[in-house]
Amino acid sequence: MTTASPSVFLLMVNGQVESAQFPEYDDLYCKYCFVYGQDWAPTAGLEEGISQITSKSQDVRQALVWNFPIDVTFKSTNPYGWPQIVLSVYGPDVFGNDVVRGYGAVHVPFSPGRHKRTIPMFVPESTSKLQKFTSWFMGRRPEYTDPKVVAQGEGREDENTEAEIPRSTWVCLCPSPAWLMLPFCPQ
After folding, report:
1. What is the pLDDT of residue 7?
2. Average pLDDT, integer, range 73-81
């Protein structure tokens, strides 16, 4: 009697962080990382990356265009802990310090094909007026030491955040050419 080895499947993520709209900010850059369960493992590509700094377009939309490519492959034995992409957007404040302008997360689509996702962004907020003034004066707004916490629900119940208006602050993920999930069974 032979023992069957557990079958695995591959999830290929191929796309880009296309653009964002932050009406009140300019000269922003974007970082991405993936959060996934313990049964998942990256097999190819980059799990995290950082884009170039971009300026607003001169047209009516005033979009920040990155066209930042994402290409990574994961393998797993079950769908629990399906990967999420976490985006962090940074830019200069009035003193020239890099500060967070938004965090957001979305699950990688579950079905194969072309998908476009719009991600509402938010920023953590100081809990008191003194902390707000101190963070403004020191040029250090509240931010996460590990942005992956954005994709985790545990421990964030009492968190104070300032939600940006999703219609005006968003990041667009576009596939190129597709998000794919391929079954794979080793022999």
Report:
1. 87
2. 93
The arithmetic mean of pLDDT across residues 19-45, rounded, is 93
Angle at 172 between CA 94 and CA 11, to 5 degrees: 125
User: In terms of C-beta density within 10 A (0-12 exposed, 13-18 middle, 19 or more buried), how is residue 4 classed?
Assistant: exposed
The full set of domain ranges for the chain reads: 9-175
9-175: CATH number: 2.60.40.150
Distances (CA, A) of 171 to 5, 63, 76, 92: 41, 10, 28, 18
d(CA 31, CA 147): 10
Residue with more model confidence, 96 or 179: 96
pLDDT confidence band for 183 (50 / 70 / 90): very low
Characterise 45 by phi-psi region: left (phi > 0), alpha (psi -120 to 50), beta (else): left
Cα R_g (the chain), whole angstroms: 19
How far is it, in rounded angstroms, from Cα 129 to Cα 147?
24
